[in-house]
Specification:
By secondary structure, the protein is of the alpha/beta class. It has helices at 4-21, 24-29, 46-60, 80-87, 100-108, 142-151, 166-177, 193-201, 212-220, 266-280, 283-292, 301-321; strands at residues 32-39, 64-71, 94-99, 119-134, 157-160, 186-189, 207-211, 224-229, 253-260, 295-300.
């Protein structure tokens, strides 16, 4: 039997629904009063920049009233993800920013939780990697690098970010494509792009791998020589061949995307997808991508969920080859 309280709830819900239906532009945008964004990394990094750019654009486009960003850093997302899965469960207005680095970090750290336990909403941006050497290196092309690696991989040291991260994964893929056992590769892991850059410029390593934006200024200044990029095709305004052009059949994007916590309904998932699609198609978002040199690679819903499954399998395979996963 319905109580007065039940009838009052139903009346309020119907009133809210009629209000929403009476505003088609709001219904299409799936506007929320406050969006809660979970960033499993420290402020200032790529995921945090993505979250704060999202906040800026969503507010400018009047798709949200406000946003609250929560940073929980550690181990490439392996520290924050359990909190998002367990403590943020069922929140319909919450999103977590993550990406390829998290996939690798969870596997490498043998995390008890998996990224597949979240609800994939949208892949947003991608950044290709670049293989570089010091300007005075005898290695002039990626073909030279490949030849040296095949001759004696132990003598070709490559600097990059954390072990099991995107840079390490790319080197493993390059080694595998060239017939070099990934476990024979000499990878030197650094805490960030700054220390890795210093090691490359100081001649402490043979080469380096990172996102193009990390080394872009040094390449322009002539201090680093870019041998190849990991994109599938040549990029506008960047006179650097792809790995594939150089005979190394490898393509990799350091992608970033957003996920909802488990426990939300199908309707709530669709609302979040619609919200992000509206943002991604806005001129304000496109302008931010242009300013930040982020490549748009929007993929949503079921297609994104399938992509996540495939990435998990691909990265697991590479990390097993590198001896970082069992």
């Amino acid at each position: 039997m319905l109580t007065k309280r039940d009838l009052l709830k139903a009346s309020v819900a119907l009133g809210g629904l009629s209000l929403l239906l009476g505003r088609p532009e709001r219904a299409a945008a799936q506007m929320v009063d406050q969006l809660q964004i979970f960033v499993p990394a420290a402020p200032g990094g790529g995921w945090d920049q993505t979250a704060r750019t999202m906040e800026q654009v969503l507010k400018a486009e009047k798709l949200i009233g406000s946003a609250q960003i929560t940073n929980v850093p550690g181990a490439g997302g392996a520290v924050g993800l359990p909190q998002f899965i367990n403590q943020w469960r069922g929140r319909p207005n919450a999103l977590m920013v993550g990406g390829l680095v998290m996939v690798g970090a969870l596997i490498a750290n043998k995390s008890p939780v998996k990224i597949t336990q979240t609800v994939p909403i949208a892949r947003l941006t991608g950044e290709f990697e670049v293989l570089v050497v010091p300007a005075d290196s005898p290695l002039k092309t990626a073909k030279d690098f490949a030849a040296a690696l095949k001759t004696d991989p132990k003598k070709v040291s490559v600097a990059g970010g954390s072990a099991g991260g995107t840079d390490h994964i790319l080197l493993g893929m390059i080694g595998k494509a060239l017939g070099v056992a990934p476990r024979d590769l000499t990878y030197v892991a650094y805490a960030g792009g700054g220390p890795a850059l210093a090691a490359i410029l100081g001649g402490h390593v043979t080469a380096g791998i990172s996102g193009f934006g990390e080394f872009g200024e040094q390449i322009k200044a002539g201090k680093l020589r870019a041998l190849a990029i990991s994109a599938g095709e040549r990029q506008p305004d960047i006179d650097v061949p792809t790995l594939k052009e150089e005979g190394i059949d490898v393509e990799l994007f350091n992608w970033r995307g957003v996920f909802a916590p488990p426990g939300i309904s199908a309707a709530q998932r669709e609302s979040l997808i619609a919200l992000i699609e509206k943002m991604a198609n806005s001129n304000a978002w496109k302008e931010e991508l242009r300013k930040r040199d982020w490549t748009p690679i929007l993929l949503t819903g079921d297609a994104y969920a399938k992509f996540i499954e495939n990435e998990n399998e691909r990265v697991t395979s590479v990390l097993k080859d590198l001896g970082l996963a069992s």
